[in-house]
Amino acid sequence: MAKNVLLVDDSSTMRKIISRSLRQAGLDFGEIYEAGDGQEALAMLEKESIDIVLSDINMPNMNGIEFLREKANRPGIKDIPVFMISTETGDDIIGEAKSLGAIGALKKPFTPDKVNEVLGPLM
Amino acid sequence: MNSFAEINDKLIESTIEIFTGMVMMEISVAGEPLVTVGPLKQSITGMVGLAGTHKGLLAVHFPKQVALDVTSSFLGMEVDQINDDVQDAIGEIANMLGGNLKTILSDRGKDINLSLPSTIYGDEYAFSSQAEVDQVILPFQAPSGVFYVEVELEH
Description:
The structure holds 2 protein chains of 2 kinds.
Chain A: E1 3-8, H1 12-24, E2 29-35, H2 38-47, E3 52-55, H3 64-71, E4 82-86, H4 91-99, E5 104-107, H5 112-119
Parallel strand pairs in A: 1-2, 1-3, 3-4, 4-5
Helix pairs in contact in A: 1-5, 2-3
Chain B: H1 4-23, E1 28-29, E2 40-52, E3 56-63, H2 64-75, H3 84-105, E4 112-114, E5 118-125, E6 133-142, E7 145-154
Helix pairs in contact in B: 1-3, 2-3
């Protein structure tokens, strides 16, 4: 069954690009939901039926690391997988994201081929 | 830290990668690096700050028409005026370049923090730093004009 995806990025441009890349990669997904920061993402996860989250790290209000930390404390949503898509791909910050439950990371910039290679197995 | 010559080469590589891979626009280097760029006219600048072991900023200066064409290509839709989409797109290009600059300056970007991107635009403005900085400006040729990637790093 096609998975519903939540895109979390403060850049509306980047949300559009990721959405387009998912389509160009030919991946099988259902609805695409969008959030502009971690707080909006938590509200969206509580409200909608979402199967996987693709999240930026460097965001205002609540960044990707804070989002992971808060999500881990919420029983109803804590098991929804989160994949990081960010310019932040240093070992320390990705290590912290993974320790908080992130299942992987993709560096910006990316190509549709890279999206397919990395996210295909998760869809 | 790498020399500015090494930084230039890697930043050129990063810029071309971002434009060909994500903006879907072919660009090329438009000459030797500059040390200054005059008042920017009818332009938009996206920038991110760097803090930590390296302090400074990365800015990318686009003439209005180049910014509109870049945004149109990036988003896959026609854009004919500077609006929120253009500001967001130009800011995101600065953000991606800043992320790459972090990695160039420091082992996998450790010990450098990046600010959220911001943009400025107007009929005519100057872009200068109050601090003592090393500075380089890389010119690139896009189909509708030349744009500049600028790096300033405190001594």
